[in-house]
């Protein structure tokens, strides 16, 4: 039987608002990344296509209607968090339960709360190592800077799960229109930011 090496860590890139538009932009990093593994362009977003409903589905693996709490965009704006006793725990809680003490980190911009389900007790305590809440900025460059600093820190080499949320492309899409030159240029910028993170991971090992 072929030996399969154990996965040391998992990194999730949440690329908000790019859809298939990355195909119209210069995105060598994303293109190479997709070509190196399993991928699809036929996946459909959850309806309604608001952030809370879709991110909750991604992080729990179930549709909003199966979730008794059913996170809604307006609920997240008021600061409501995911119920602790939900029958559909988030990925973060599953890992914390299965691997007690596992180090996890979430880098997201909470101004719009695009990454729900990271406010459970597990993530408020030690199991989630860092959850940056930079309320003074919504720019991805700030998030990426913190991610790079985190990866380079020797204390974080044993991180099991790293969740990184990018929001600027979606912001540009809302403001300028999806598929506009401004939107596509921001997707190009996002691609270079992802490359910076992946290069840092390669350097650290």
Q: How does this structure look, described?
A:
The protein has 205 residues and is of the alpha/beta class. It has a single domain (10-40, 88-204), classed as Alkaline Phosphatase, subunit A (3-Layer(aba) Sandwich), CATH 3.40.720.10. Helices cover 40% and strands 12% of the residues. The chain contains 8 helices and 4 strands. It has helices spanning 28-35, 51-60, 73-77, 91-98, 121-124, 140-152, 168-176, 181-204; strands at residues 10-15, 103-107, 128-132, 159-166. Strands 1-4-2-3 form a 4-stranded parallel β-sheet. Helix 5 (121-124) links the parallel strand 2 and strand 3. Helix 6 (140-152) runs parallel beside helix 8 and helix 7 packs antiparallel against helix 8. The longest helix has 24 residues, at 181-204. The radius of gyration is 17 Å and the shape is globular. The two termini are 27 Å apart. The model is unreliable at 73-79 and 111-137 (pLDDT under 50).
């Amino acid at each position: 039987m072929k030996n399969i090496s154990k996965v040391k860590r998992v990194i999730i890139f949440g690329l908000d608002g790019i859809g298939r538009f990355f195909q119209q932009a210069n995105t060598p990093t994303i293109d190479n990344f997709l070509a190196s593994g399993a991928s699809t362009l036929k996946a459909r977003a959850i309806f309604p296509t608001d952030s809370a409903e879709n991110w909750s589905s991604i992080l729990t693996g179930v549709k909003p209607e199966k979730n008794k709490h059913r996170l809604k965009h307006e609920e997240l704006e008021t600061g409501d968090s995911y119920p602790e006793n939900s029958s559909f725990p988030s990925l973060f809680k599953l890992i914390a339960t299965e691997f007690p003490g596992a180090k996890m980190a979430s880098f997201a911009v909470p101004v719009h709360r695009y990454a729900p389900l990271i406010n459970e007790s597990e993530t408020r305590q030690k199991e989630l190592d860092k959850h940056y809440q930079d309320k003074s900025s919504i720019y991805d460059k700030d998030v990426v800077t913190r991610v790079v600093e985190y990866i380079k820190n020797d204390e974080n080499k044993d991180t099991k799960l790293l969740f990184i949320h990018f929001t600027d492309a979606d912001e540009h899409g809302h403001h300028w229109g999806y598929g506009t030159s401004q939107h596509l240029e921001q997707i190009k910028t996002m691609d270079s930011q992802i490359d910076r993170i992946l290069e840092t991971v390669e350097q650290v090992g």
